[in-house]
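Weekly modeling sync, notes
Attendees: S.R. (lead), two postdocs, one rotation student

Agenda item 3: backlog of single-chain predictions. S.R. asked that every request posted to the team notebook include the full sequence so nobody has to chase files. The rotation student volunteered to paste the first one in as an example of the format we agreed on. Action items at the bottom.

Example entry:
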Amino acid sequence: MLVAGEGFGKRNQGMSPSESADMLMQCAPLIHEAGIPLSATISVAFGDPYDGEVDPLVVGNLAARAQRAGVGELALGDTIGVATPWQVRSLIERVSMEAPDVFLRMHFHDTRGAALANVAAAVDAGVDVIDASCGGIGGCPFAPAATGNVATEDVVYMLERAGFETGLDLGKLIETAKWLETVLGHEVSSSLSKAGGFPS
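Predicted structure, as returned to the notebook:
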């Protein structure tokens, strides 16, 4: 796990952004030697809960170092849910320039209600792998007030209405989100668990 923010990095991993990249560079040869595909995530790529704005140059540098380490897939994580669609497009462009050989994945939290818009911006920018969780559950104990990941069923609904094939069963996802409510003892955050699909 790479980290783009100093404050979050010190609390979550005990490392600065540069130190997290150093650790990746040290571990990468062992991972390659074991024949394991190497994937990495840049957390708080869009904002740090303790230090505020994150410099896109830091994210670009981390991506470049990840490529040099032989990372095949790199996720940009909006760990605290502060990204906007315009920021998403801009950061994808920068990372694609700094690490053109790395396959990009996006990880959005819906803390401020922009996750679906950010997914759409990422897909428009050419990213076709999106992290999500059924019901929108999840979170991070080191990110104050951060809510769960964007809900899988909400993402699937939006993409399939736009003509994309996801290979996922929306009805089953909605059923699972409703089941999660019984297990967790409270409502989940996804919209589709409440409204259902369309046409119904």
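Discussion: group reviewed the output briefly. The two ends are 41 Å apart (CA to CA).
Action items: rotation student to repeat for the remaining queue; S.R. to check formatting next week.
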